[in-house]
Amino acid sequence: MNKRRWLWIGVVLAAGVAGYYALVLHSPAPQSEFALDLAQVRALADSVPGEKAGAVHYEEVLAMRFYEAMVMAGDPWKETPMPVYSYQLVFPDRTLIVDTAVARADVKPEFIGLHYDEAAYQRMNAAMAKAAQILVTHEHMDHIGGIAAHPQLAQLRPALRLTAEQLANSAGMAPVKMPAEPLQGYEPLRYGGLLAIAPGVVLIKAPGHTPGSQMVYVKRADGRELLFLGDVSWRTRNIEFVRERPLLMTLLIGEKRQPVLAQFKALKALRRAEPGLAMVPGHDGPAVAALEGAGLLDKGFQ
């Protein structure tokens, strides 16, 4: 084999290693800041009159099959479950739903991977029909799909609290499609950084993962606090290490890495400053189990 051929082989190998590093292993440092003033959020949460939620329930509707390397850049190619949740805030006189999973018919069988709990989905469907407010952390199918597929979407309309950014991103919902007729003339939420929507409940705009991404702060009646992160962070590890999903994954889902990294940085600082604030990542089974064990979450919708 002549020297030129060896040279070309070396160039190809070097390009492959560099490409793999950039696409799978590397997570850049945050280059910007994300403003998250918990004192202001708390003040807004207390500004809405009425009793706060006495309990927070959850349903695990399905678990997708993922790999750790897809969740955080540099992690191994080890299979890991990606559970999909819906949450129910229970007030004395009403309920509020956060995230609505996705109907089985809208998920390819290979994506379901581990399990799909049809009974949990139907409990969530029934709870949505009775909820005073229904909102989603963002517009990806595994969070907004339950709204799109609901058989009584027109009846749900008064309870829906979808944002303008979420409704405008129909491509981000794919393969789920939001029916147009039941929502004709619907006026979505429009707000800046923060919006109080119920006693103890504040929306925190956090675009990056999608244009309509938002976190949901909840102060319970007993004073304990939760912060639902949606898919700002899939797992607690992303925040602990301030490490993004691999570039390959962010390109596939259309995520903007720097805004998300700034959110990781802010959330890590907040965890240190406020250890009593329970953060709920989008797809973290052990984190949800720990919060259930601590009495912050209860399994099964009412």
Task: Give the key terms.
302 residues, alpha/beta, Metallo-beta-lactamase, Chain A, six-stranded mixed beta sheet, 13 helices
Give your account of this protein's structure:
- The chain is of the alpha/beta class and 302 residues long.
- It has a single domain, classed as Ribonuclease Z/Hydroxyacylglutathione hydrolase-like (Metallo-beta-lactamase, Chain A), CATH 3.60.15.10.
- The protein has 13 helices and eleven strands.
- Strands 1, 2, 3, 4, 5 and 11 form a six-stranded mixed sheet that branches. The protein has a five-stranded mixed sheet with strand order 6-7-8-9-10.
- β7 and β8 form a beta hairpin.
- The protein starts with a helix and ends with a strand.
What is the CA-atom radius of gyration, in angstroms? 20 Å
Q: Extract low-pLDDT stretches.
A: none
Q: What level of helicity do the residues show?
A: 25-40%
| Distance, first to last CA | 72 Å
Number of domain modules = 1
> How many DSSP-defined strands?
11
Q: What value does the average pLDDT take?
A: 94
CATH class: Alpha Beta
Number of helices: 13
How many strands, which pairing sense, and closed or not: the largest β-sheet? 6 strands, mixed
Portion in beta strands: 15-25%
Query: SSE order in H/E notation?
Result: HHEHEEHEHEHHHHEEEEHHHEHE
